[in-house]
Each structure stands twice: as C-alpha cells, then as structure tokens.
Amino acid sequence: MPPLFQCLICGQSIERSMKVFWKRKGHLLCSTCRDRIDSTPDPAKGNATP
Ligand SMILES: [Zn+2]
User: Fold this and answer.
1) Is residue 45 assigned to a domain?
2) Is residue 27's pLDDT more than 90?
3) In this structure, is residue 14 part of a structural domain?
4) What percent of the chain has pLDDT over 90?
5) What mean pLDDT is reported for the chain?
6) What's the 35 CA to ligand 1 centre distance in angstroms?
7) Which domain holds residue 15?
8) What's the gap in Å between 28 CA and the centre of ligand 1?
9) How many CB atoms lie within 10 A of CB 30?
C-alpha cells in the first residue's frame, strides 16, 4: 500500500510512491491541481493577459 501525502495546493490526501516523492523532492500535487496548472498559461512565456 503506497504512503499518503498531502497535495501542496488543496491539502487533499494523495497516494504516491516514495520513488515519485523523492523524484519530486516532496513537491506533490493531486491530479486535479496538476491539471489546473497544466491548463493555466504560463505568464513567463508572455502569452498570458491578466
Ligand atoms: Zn490538490
């Protein structure tokens, strides 16, 4: 059974393997928040209009 971690954004409990945990250096997001970030335009790219 994989250990439970908390999403950094919403605090939801998520199951992740220790391998992923170390790979991400402990920065884990649930799939919902990760999808939200992926679909949000990156302001650093200069295409986003506030
Ligand atoms: Zn989340």
Assistant:
1) no
2) no
3) yes
4) 46
5) 85
6) 9
7) 4-39
8) 9
9) 20
